[in-house]
Amino acid sequence: MIVPYLRVLQVTEEKKYVKDPIPAKAILLGDAFDWAYEEICANPRILETLDEYFQKTLKLNRELEETVREDVYHHEKAATVFFRAHLYAGNLPAYIRDSESGDILQLDRFDWGPVSRREFWPLRLPRRVDDFVTNDDAVRNPNTLLHGAYRPVFLWRDEFERWLKKTFGHQKHGGGRPPGSGSWQVADELLLDEMRNMIKTGKAKSANDAARLLADRARGSGILASKQTRLANRYRKKFGPEKN
Questions:
Q1: How many other C-beta atoms can be found within 10 angstroms of the C-beta atom of residue 55?
Q2: DSSP collapsed to 3 states, the chain
Q3: Phi/psi class of residue 126: alpha, beta or left (left: φ > 0; alpha: ψ in -120 to 50)?
Q4: Radius of gyration (Cα) for the chain, nearest Å?
């Protein structure tokens, strides 16, 4: 049963996250974002479809970001804005599950958006979308606190795949690769350039060292060690062993 889940403020002394099982035909919000992020990296001009407000504040975000990680940070933030804009527009209905009743609760799409146009929403967003969404961040979020704990957000897989097809022009993946299990080559490219800069400036001693420092930011659901190996191998393939 699917019912609307109203935004009701609840307060707990300590954040508690419970990873309830989701329906078999669903996909976790974080996995959906990872898949969308891969598509956005491969098709960056899709960001031009964002409305003028979001494009202007993303441009301001890039101008204000002056760290070494500027390019990676900006790409992730832009992808987050794009993904949330589609959640806000109702193109991607999102849900949580009531662990006690078994009901599927649909989140209010308007809670993904800015409070007003005067709010610099993209500047305040985290740069990645996670399975868990809390209602006490710097930006307004849907309320996922239920029975004293935050519940994982998910999408129906068929709705998400229809959105992928409409947005990026792909056919339904069906029994093909699951989200986030691709080569991650496009997303890794951003980290490879950062690894090279770290090695050149002495912040890392080798490809393995640089990969170790950045592994937690690599896409995919594998363990950090496998991400480190993947990044180091791709670095050597791109820049050659003499650069390590």
A1: 16
A2: CEEEECCCCCCCCCCCECCCCCCCCEEEHHHHHHHHHHHHHHCHHHHHHCCHHHHHHHHHHHHHCCCCCHHHHHHHHHHHHHHHHHHHCCCCCCEEECCCCCCEEEECHHHHCCCCCCCCHHHHCCCCCCCCCCCCCCCCCCCCEECCEECCCEEEHHHHHHHHHHHHCCCCCCCCCCCCCCCCHHHHHHHHHHHHHHHHCCCCCCHHHHHHHHHHHCCCCCCHHHHHHHHHHHHHHHHCHHHC
A3: beta
A4: 19
pLDDT, tens only, 194-230:
899 999 998 988 888 898 898 888 876 566 777 888 8
| Separation CA 152–CA 67 (nearest Å) | 32
User: Are 113 and 140 in contact, with CB atoms under 8 Å apart?
Assistant: yes
Q: Supply 208's token pair.
A: 């393995």
Backbone angles phi, psi at 201, to 5 degrees: -90, 0
The reported pLDDT for the residue numbered 134 is 83
Look up the pTM and report it. 0.69
Rounded Cα distance between 216 and 208, Å, is 14
Cα 110 from Cα 184, distance rounded (Å): 31
Domain chopping of the chain, boundaries: 17-168, 185-243
Q: Which tokens belong to 206?
A: 């080798």
Predicted local confidence at residue 172, as pLDDT: 46
Q: Which residue has the tokens 């950045």?
A: 214
Report the 10 Å Cβ neighbour count for 186: 18
